[in-house]
Specification:
Elements (H helix, E strand, L loop, with lengths): L5 H11 L33 E2 L5 E2 L1 E5 L26 H13 L5 E5 L6 H18 L5 E5 L6 H10 L2 E3 L7 H7 L5 H24 L11 E7 L6 H15 L3 E6 L17 H16 L4 H6 L14 H8 L6 E2 L5 H4 L7 H10 L7 H7 L10 E2 L6 H4 L5 H4 L12
Parallel strand pairs: 3-4, 4-5, 5-6, 6-7, 7-8, 9-10
Antiparallel strand pairs: 1-2
Helix pairs in contact: 2-3, 3-4, 4-6, 7-8
Organism: Sphingomonas dokdonensis
GO molecular function: catalytic activity; iron-sulfur cluster binding; metal ion binding
InterPro entries: Aldolase_TIM, DNA_rSAM_put, Endo/Exo/Phosphatase_dom_1, rSAM, rSAM_sf, RuvA_2-like
Amino acid sequence: MAQLDVRQKLEILADAAKYDASCASSGTAKRNSRDGKGLGSTEGMGICHAYAPDGRCISLLKILLTNSCIFDCHYCINRKSSNVRRARFTAKEVVNLTLSFYRRNYIEGLFLSSGIIGSSNYTMEQLVEVARSLREDHHFRGYIHLKTIPDADPELIHQAGLYADRMSINVELPTVGGLKRLAPEKDNGRIEGAMGGLKSSIIDTRDAKKRYKSAPTFAPAGQSTQMIVGADAATDGDIVTKAATLYNRFELRRVYYSAFSPIPDASAVLPLQRPPLMREHRLYQSDWLMRFYGFQPKEVLAAADDATGMLPLDIDPKLAWALKFRDTFPVDVNRAPKELLLRVPGLGTKAVANILTSRRWRKLRLDDVARLTVSIAKIRPFIVAEDWRPVALTDKAELKPLVAPKKQQLELFAA
């Protein structure tokens, strides 16, 4: 086989990394090199695919160290039995690529994952070496996200956390049965054990930092994970329950959802078609309800179909919940507490904050609410204002057609 140059390796390994969705840079510490020392920054603008909490776009070089793997997970394009072109970077090549892309203002950081080569420990050593070299040899202060190998020695994982801003360990599938069936070489206990170890290290170093300024940081942007949606028979209810458990047990920053994509020469145990992308979108919306809107997991599950356990695809989970529990509404925008306002379909966190601020000075009319929100049409059946009470709307037996988004044909060449 002809020797691949770095450009060819980059083409293969950047394409192989596209299946990993868990690559956002939110929550990291701010660093820069404006004092003339070091190289890189976690701040700034660029051509990017990740977003910081304040809305800044962060560009990341997102690659695999190698797409070779000793595991044979059915759903993975890079599995051992897959007939794909293989490539492998050395640690030095990844370091040089990162620095070269940074100097050309293409990126602000690195997202590095890998197939398992040789052993879990050997692979983790290579990932750690990349991060160590960037930080210590080149004083790189940009963002680094490392995908952790769960079976690796805990000391190697700890070393990685000293250099990386964020660590992530993929749970892969929402149920233990699904993992055993589609990834028999992976073990749910080991995966969650590694996640628990990361949580402990993050908490310990956070406490040490409060007492000693010189204490090292450990994964300041926390840890995240990813679940594949639609590769097994897990329902949306199973996925939401698993996500809630992971948030509570391991203090995750994010759970990412990746719709299963059919792969060449796929195993017979996999579905022939990918799930609707809208299903992935609805799961992200349900995730937002739990993280920012005060919904309990059981309330999100109540929005799903009782028979199938699936969230509706035609309306968002918040609207589905509101239609099921219409006795909660209408909500008085001039008197209701924040927690209840956040339950109103169409009211986001910013709109609720604006309402709470504005009503301190005057009684809000329907026109006032309209100016504070994106669209009043979806909200009207669920609120009471100074000059508005939706008696006729809430008495209707079938409210859904009035509040569900209208279907429309997309235009290919629309401006």
